[in-house]
């Protein structure tokens, strides 16, 4: 039985708009392309994962962005860090994560129609709900739990508890979907939830031997896993 499903935002519901990022860097005199930024993303995400898993760094977003900029443009590390800091201050006004991941909002609507409580649980900068209004998703979720608002971030179990309090349900009947092994999967499992690790990196790594973790490359994969768990007695 599944009563509650939550989704991470970045790289799960919405993805980085590389063309928009290239244009923003152009405003600062740094030339690059969406293709170059896309090619640099895997290494930058790997750096982000290391920071989230290790803890002790209060700006993993900026470190990710600096690594992405340096990898795509070849600018020096200090210049990339300065650009990342500028982009961070611009995020509330022009959020770079705004491209819908194919099929995911349609899945959200299917779950809601089936009576499932659906929310968002994201490490963000405090303006995620406003972004969803901007892109036309303001009424899609029963709750949007943004670490920048509540003051605690995944994988801290407190943010999972806050989310469940907002949405209702029980840990055993709740599933979280997200792209970060450390923040999303490990955090959800520590809270007693099941987890779907989302994206190509998850599929490449595999779920491991935990029956409460599955992997999905796309929305169709998430849908199939949820359907299977909904009818499972486990």
Can you characterise this structure?
The termini are close together. Helix 10 links the parallel strand 7 and strand 8 (213-216). Helices cover 51% and strands 15% of the residues. The longest helix has 21 residues, at 34-54. It has 234 residues and is an alpha/beta fold. The mean pLDDT is 94. The strands form two sheets. A six-stranded parallel beta sheet has the order 5-4-1-6-7-8, with helices on both faces. Strands 2-3 form a two-stranded antiparallel sheet. The protein folds into two domains: 4-14 and 98-231, 3-Layer(aba) Sandwich (Rossmann fold), CATH 3.40.50; 18-95.
The biggest beta sheet reads: 6 strands, parallel
| Broad shape | globular
CATH superfamily of the largest domain: HAD superfamily/HAD-like
Order of helices and strands, N to C?
EEHHHHEHEHEHHEHEHEH
Gyration radius, rounded: 17 Å
* Secondary structure tally, helices: 11
> What would you call the structural class?
alpha/beta
Q: How many structural units, i.e. domains?
A: 2
Task: Quote the beta fraction.
Answer: 5-15%
- Tell me the name of the CATH class of the largest domain: Alpha Beta
């Amino acid at each position: 039985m599944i009563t509650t499903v939550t989704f991470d935002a970045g790289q799960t519901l919405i993805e980085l708009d590389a063309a928009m990022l290239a244009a923003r860097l152009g405003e600062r005199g740094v030339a690059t392309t969406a293709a170059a930024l896309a090619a640099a993303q895997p290494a930058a995400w790997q750096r982000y994962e290391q920071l989230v898993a290790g803890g002790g760094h209060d700006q993993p977003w900026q470190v990710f962005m600096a690594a992405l900029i340096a990898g795509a443009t070849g600018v020096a590390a200090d210049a990339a860090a300065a650009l990342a800091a500028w982009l961070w201050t611009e995020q509330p006004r022009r959020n770079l994560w705004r491209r819908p991941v194919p099929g995911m909002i349609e899945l959200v609507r299917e779950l809601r129609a089936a009576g499932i409580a659906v929310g968002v649980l994201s490490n963000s900068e405090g303006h995620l709900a406003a972004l969803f209004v901007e892109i036309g998703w303001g009424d899609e979720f029963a709750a949007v739990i943004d670490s920048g608002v509540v003051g605690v971030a995944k994988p801290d179990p407190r943010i999972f508890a806050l989310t469940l309090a907002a949405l209702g349900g029980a840990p055993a009947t709740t599933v979280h979907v997200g792209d970060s092994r450390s923040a999303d999967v490990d955090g959800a499992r520590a809270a007693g939830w099941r987890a779907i690790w989302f994206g190509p990196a998850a599929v490449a790594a595999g779920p491991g031997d935990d029956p409460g973790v599955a992997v999905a490359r796309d929305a169709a994969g998430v849908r199939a896993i949820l359907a299977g768990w909904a009818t499972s007695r486990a």
